[in-house]
Write a structure and sequence with these properties.
Blueprint (H helix, E strand, L loop, with lengths): L13 H13 L4 H12 L9 H7 L6 E4 L3 E5 L7 E7 L14 H17 L6 E3 L15 E5 L9
Antiparallel strand pairs: 1-2, 2-3, 3-5, 4-5
The chain binds adenosine monophosphate and zinc ion.
Length: 159
């Protein structure tokens, strides 16, 4: 039996999930700790199963897919703000650009390049690529994505 709960057994936060990994790597799990770890995972604030775009990527939610490869999918936005409005969505769940690390640089470049190529395929050589990061910047779906808007003249700065 554990004399006191480890830090990982405090109310769940993203930091606690990181601590779970530490415990798993450094200790033999007894049954009490294993139970706590399962609870933490269950209460994770945002999991792939909660995520609309993960549901689109996995199949249960419908979307108008215009392109896909092993790293991303491009779909038509359900509420288009331009004649062409696409979303380039990485297959890997990441809440926003704020969560991207150095290992994600190649993926981020891929998303931008695919957005450009898909806009070209839709007949556009002028387009705007946008990433909203955080609710204050207009992000409403917390799975990183690149908007690609085209087919009308654009103003600057954006609203
Ligand atoms: P953002 O506000 O930057 O997070 O962008 C989210 C975008 O997802 C918005 O432009 C929505 O119109 C779009 N959206 C929400 N649900 C769907 C859906 N089921 N299929 C396609 N686009 C969607
Ligand atoms: Zn997701």
């Amino acid at each position: 039996m554990l004399d006191q709960k480890p830090e990982a057994c405090q109310p769940p936060t993203a930091n606690n999930l990181f601590l779970v990994t530490t415990h798993k790597a450094s200790e033999n799990l007894n049954s009490e700790l294993r139970l706590e770890l399962q609870t933490l995972c269950y209460h994770a604030p945002m999991t792939e199963t909660d995520c609309l775009f993960c549901k689109i990527l996995a199949g249960p939610a419908a979307a108008d897919v215009v392109y896909q490869d092993n790293r991303c999918v491009a779909v038509r936005d359900i509420n288009p703000q331009a004649p062409t409005h696409l979303l380039v969505i990485p297959r890997e769940h990441m809440e926003s650009l704020d969560d991207a690390s150095q290992k994600d640089e190649s993926l981020l470049g891929h998303l931008l390049r695919i957005g450009a190529r898909v806009a070209n395929l839709q007949g556009h050589d002028s387009y705007r690529s946008v990433i909203n990061s955080g609710s204050g910047a207009g992000q409403s779906v917390f799975h990183l994505h690149v908007h690609v808007l085209a087919g009308r003249s654009m103003t600057w700065p954006p609203g």
